Amino acid sequence: RTVYVNGEYLPEEDAKISIFDRGFLMADAVYEVTSVLDGKLIDFEGHAVRLKRSLDELDMAEPCSKDELLEIHRKLVEENGIVEGLVYLQVTRGSDGDRDFVFPSDDTPPSIVLFTQNKPGLADSPAAKKGAKIISIEDIRWGRRDIKTVQLLYPSMGKMMAKKAGCDDAWLVEDGHVTEGTSNNAYFVKDGVIVTRPLSNDILHGITRKAVLRMAAEAQLKIEERLFTIEEAQGADEAFTTSASAFVMPVVEIDGVALGDGTPGPIATRLREIYLDESLKAAI
Ligand code: PMP
């Protein structure tokens, strides 16, 4: 694989980052994951805008322009022959060659790393046909989940807890209400109404969430952005999650309770089709 590190395209085994890099020592880093379908980038603009917001919120410098970012994405997709897959991008605050809680001076260049992941069958996913089984766990992450940082240890532990329980993923619960999934936004559907938590610092402002809610509104589906509990979702007709890497993923079970007939629901299935179709048309 060819990867990109701080201005250079290199074979992955030659790519190097300092051990003093604050991304490595302090999770002082933000990231984006953009999916590739048909060799094209899905919603690059949305990811670029969110990356800028994450950097601004953390007073981190932009490593390069949006146009340069697009060029790097495209070059890696082409070099690595990605037809269906992902482009991972990470920007860290870099390092001034030592470890310190205080941020290094403003002239310290940020580090930027990009690599591709080949995922044949991403769109026509068997997992989406089956639907996901979810467990719920307490949300003990920090209070700025709207910033897309690489602090992914707890979400990672959540996925492992789900796996151990024979499930696919976990939904996080804070003060009795679902925040989001470990790596996706969470929804249920009851009597034709799509319910999801409103945007705040408590959840990531999903690029896919924004697109799917727009497409749902265009399809005349009703949407309610409000807090909800696991019990309410368990009593729903269907449920789903959204993320840039799994699109719209139907949810068929929550804490052992099957939703509807235990297969992907019609609205989730339809939204997945609409999302894939429209995103592919707009891909660049
Ligand atoms: N919430 C969390 C915690 C996530 O990690 C992700 C995916 N990175 C999402 C939601 C979905 O966001 P997006 O649609 O932009 O991938």
UniProtKB/TrEMBL annotation:
InterPro entries with a match to the protein in the record: Aminotrans_IV, Aminotrans_IV_CS, Aminotransferase-like, BCAT-like_C, BCAT-like_N, Class-IV_PLP-Dep_Aminotrnsfr
Keyword Secreted: no
Protein name per the record: Probable branched-chain-amino-acid aminotransferase
Keywords of the record: Amino-acid biosynthesis, Branched-chain amino acid biosynthesis, Pyridoxal phosphate
Signal peptide from the UniProt entry: none
Enzyme class: transferase
One MF annotation (Gene Ontology) recorded for this entry: branched-chain-amino-acid transaminase activity
Coiled-coil ranges from the UniProt annotation: none
The UniProt record lists the keyword Cell membrane: no
